[in-house]
Amino acid sequence: MRLLRSTDLALRVLMRLAVAGAATPPTRQVAADMDVPYTHAAKVVAELQHLGLVDARRGRGGGLALTEKGRTASVGAVVRTFEGDGDVVDCEGTTPCPLSSGCRLRGALRRAQEAFYAALDPVTVADIVADPTGPLLLGIARAS
Question: Quick one: the chain helix, strand, coil %, rounded to 5?
Fold first, then answer.
């Protein structure tokens, strides 16, 4: 299974903000730290803000901060939200699969997808920035 770019970026933004401490970096700085286009980062940050995981303030003294809900958020829940609830393969697409009425693969893939999410559900954002990741993230932020 491959994650969407927006899912990957959402997780990296949460991780970056989890180690920011009292600093509130602007979206442009976080985008530069993650080496992604600002417009893409801004869309992801807007969704994270909508979910209550990030507090975003505009203007002087503004910037991004991880909320307590963001710090304790389940990685599985974040991935589910950004990936959506679709199947790994689209059996009913514009050209439906001729095997769909008797296929066992679709069910197996759905179980595998749920196992993937189940493995991520107990992991929190705070967990994924524990040593050695946190100090590495701080180094990236300082280098920018």
Answer: 55, 5, 40
Strand ranges inside the chain, DSSP E = 54-57, 63-66
Residue 133 class from Cβ within 10 Å (0-12 exposed, 13-18 middle, 19+ buried)? middle
The dihedrals phi and psi of 63, each to the nearest 5 degrees, come to: 140, -165
When mean pLDDT is compared across 4-13, 71-80, 104-113, the lowest value belongs to: 104-113
For 1, residues 6+ apart whose C-beta sits below 8 A from its C-beta are 88, 112, 113, 116
Beta-bridge partner residues of 64 = 56
Q: What is the mean pLDDT of residues 69-83?
A: 96
Separation of first and last alpha carbons in the chain? 31
What's 124's DSSP letter?
Answer: B
Q: What is the CA angle 110-96-98, rounded to 5? A: 90
C-alpha angle 35-39-40 in degrees, rounded to nearest 5: 65
What pLDDT score was predicted for residue 94? 82
In this prediction, residue 85 has a pLDDT band, given cuts at 50, 70 and 90, of: confident
